[in-house]
Each structure stands twice: as structure tokens, then as C-alpha cells.
Amino acid sequence: MELIPDDVVEVTVCSEEPTPVSEWFESPVMEDMPDDVLLAVLQYVDVEDLFACRLVCKKLGALALHPDVWRHRQLVAAKAGLEDAGQETPVLRLAPCLREVCVDFPLDNLLFATTRCAVANMTLEVWSDPSLQAALVLRNQEALGRLKKAELVFCPMEPILNDIPWQPMLSAPGQIPWLVFWTAATCGLKTLVINMFPPSVPADASLFRNSVVPCSTLTEFQCEVSKKSEPFVNFVLAGHAATLEEVGLAGAGLPSSSTLTATLLAAAPNLARLQCALLPGLEALAESASLREVCLVVTSASDLKFLGPRASGLKPAVPAAAAFLRRADQLHNVALRIFAADAGLALVEALASCERSQVKTLALDLCKDGSFSWLQKLLEPLIALLALRCLKVQVSAWQKGDKGDKPLPCHHAWLHTAPVKRLMAANRRLRLVVCGFQGDTKPKYCSGDEPCDVCLLGCGTSMPSECTKLLARVGKVVGDSHLDGE
After folding, report:
1. Residue pair 274/294 in contact by the 8 Å Cβ criterion
2. Distance between CA atoms of residues 171 and 476, nearest Å
3. 477: closest CA among 442, 436, 431, 445?
4. DSSP assignment of 36-100, as one string?
5. Cα torsion at 296, 301, 304, 307 (round to 10°)?
6. 284-312 per-position pLDDT tens digit
7. H or E element in which residue 452 lies
8. pTM score > 0.85 for this model?
9. 3-state secondary structure (DSSP) of residue 282
10. How far apart are CA 242 and CA 275, in angstroms?
11. Collapsing DSSP states into helix, strand and coil, what is residue 118?
12. What is the DSSP letter of 114?
């Protein structure tokens, strides 16, 4: 006979249907409970039962619509198939506030433009003709005064084909500049994210040159930088310069030689974190006293064939980026996503030549396949970075060993390479983290039936040796910069 553990006091088996949540609150005891206790319980009640609670009594009806009950909830547009469409209308009519709302354009429910439900984070998924409806939704939320984050997603109507850039099915693409303008000009907004700026949209530079942002409020701005989006990006950087702290400019870079974007970034007095391609004039940011974290995407036109004709004009400003890294002694965290081998090596050498470098964390994401000899050249200059405490290498394209037939499967194998051994010996406080194709941290040494040639030597698991000492300094490090994906 199986014994019941001592810590189990009572076991009850119930075959009846669960009692509706609304009936729990009909007990006389509930009337005597403090409001803050009831509010704490109602936060965990689902929406359908929450509306049912409104019919129990006046006290519970009022508490069911209290902002504390709703401020953590989200509403996802029914078009995405992630939310019951039947709850959308009552939520927009009755809920005082929500943490997040995802809404599709054109609107299926016009209550999004007139609701009194104040939203903190809003995602606008644009399918076609978004201008007027999106403006009404944004202005309504701006008036309610709670909107802090807006994300624009331009959705393709057809599957994306290999090597063919997607084109959103917009019957009026000329309205997009107005939409992004209205979004960027929303007062009180703290975060603005724009995914995949549509390449078919005409660049209306006059709209942004002749307009100003009512007030600088943005602290975070994420947008693809390209020929089409350049006027808008510069408009945001100029209008919100006083408050911007984090900027992410995805994309391959600018086909023009204009240094305006880099100049505007350098003029932001509070800019602390930057992620971008190799922009022309990037050396101007060396004078940014507030800048602490930088992630540079190192590309070349030959690496971006999927862009088609647009790639021919891309000229990554490697000398400007090298000058920036050579002079920027205020940086603490640096990440390089390397698609172009020669340019990546030039930037690593420039970073290592900074005389008063304060770089503590360096992340190297090797996104393009390269020879192991090239990887060795990439690591050798890092001996000069005396302040470096964490080196993270992500091998997105498997780097080959000296024989060219096997990848390096573990930290132990990496420690037996000459540049890593010299680097770890020269910097006794340095920790090494090596990640694989999917970002998973490699093991310290191989286990199982197929150890690598290095692990077969046994120096990493036997008596104390140089390898065992070095292995104590590899693996996951707490507190990695968010720029390198941690």
C-alpha cells in the first residue's frame, strides 16, 4: 500500500464542475474584506469572470473596473487569432486601462479610436491605408495620457520568398510618412519602434524638414535606417535629442555619404546605448561623453546580395568607424556583428589601439564563415585591452579547426588555441564565453562517447593543471551587456 507523505494533510477529489468565480464573492464574508485584498484577488481573475463580478454587488462592481485590476492586462487584435473577438468590444468600453494593445489597420472595431481605455504600450500592425484611422487611435491615446510605447509593424500580405525583399500591400504608400510623423510627434511617448520600414514608400523629405516635434520625450528609438527612412530618422534624432538614451538603427546602412545622422547622434547629450551599421561620420560620436554601450553591424555590399540593386550603393564607412573606436575611451561595452571579415579585423585592431580604453565587455558575433587563421588574427589584438573582463564570441557560422574538417565543440578546445591561451594568460581577470550557432553556450569540455581530440588529452578533467585553472574562467557570465543578446 502506498503511503501518503507526512506533509500532505488532506486530499480532496472533486468531480463536480468548478464554482464560477462570481459566486465566490457572493459570500457575506466578502463584504467585510478590505478593498486592497479584493483588488489583489481580482488581478488574477480572467476577463469573462471579471465582467460577471460586476453583477454581484455595487462594491465588487466598482472594484472590478479599478485600474489596478487592469493595468497588467493586454488585448491582442482578433485578426491575429490570439484573442477572443467577443471580449474586444466590452474591454474597450469598460476597461479603464491596459498594459498592451495590438491593433490591426484597417480597423475591424472603430472603438479603438474612441475608447476611454488608456493604454501604456500599443502595437499598430499596418496592412493597408492606415493614415486616418491610425492618427485617430494615436491622438485618442495621447489625450488619455498613458501611452509610453508605440510600435509600428508593416505587414506583408503574401509570404516572403527567398532572396526577394517583401513589399507591403499598401494602396496608398504615400501616407506612410504621415503615419510615422504623427507617431513620432505623439506627446509623452517614451519608446518608438518601427519594424521593416517599407522600401516602396516614397521619401518625402520636405515633410520632416519643415516640421518640428512638439516636445522631446523619447528615450528609446528603434528604426531601420535606409534611403527611404533617412529623413524620418534624422527628424526623430533632432526632435528628441534632449531625451534620447537608447537608439537602434537596424539595416545595412546609408547609401549616401551624408554624415548628418551621425552628427545628430553625437549631439544627443544623454545617449548611452547605440546599435547601428557603419554610418558615415561615425567618428563624431567619440566626443559623446554619455555613450557607454555600442553595437556595430559590420557589413559590405557583397554580403547583402538579397537587397538587390539597393546593395550597390552601400559603402560601409569603415575608416570612420575605426576612428570612432580608436578615440572612444568612454565605452564600457562593445559588440561587433561581423559579416565582412576584413572590416571586422580593422575595427578590432582600432578598438585595441585605444590608449585609455575602459571596455569591460566585448562581444564578437561572427556571422560569416571564415578561416580559423582569420579568427586568430581577430583575437590577437585584444591583449592590449587591459580593462577587458568578459569576452563573448558567438560563432554563428561554424569556425573550422586547423584541419578544416571539425568545429571547435567546447571551451577546452578553444583554450588550446594559441591566441586564446595568450590572451587568457595576459589578462588574468578575463572570462571567456563561446556560443554556438543558436546562441547556446558551449560546454566547458566534451562529454559522452565522442569527445574532441583536445578533450581526449585529459588535461581538462584530471589533476590541477593550466587547463583546469583556465576552465574556471569560462562559461556564462552574469551581467553581460544587453547589446550582445543576454
Report:
1. yes
2. 49
3. 431
4. HHHHHHHTTS-HHHHHHHTTT-HHHHHHTT-HHHHTT-EEE-GGGTSS-HHHHHHHHHH-SEEEE
5. 120
6. 999 999 999 999 998 755 555 544 444 44
7. none
8. no
9. helix
10. 19
11. strand
12. T
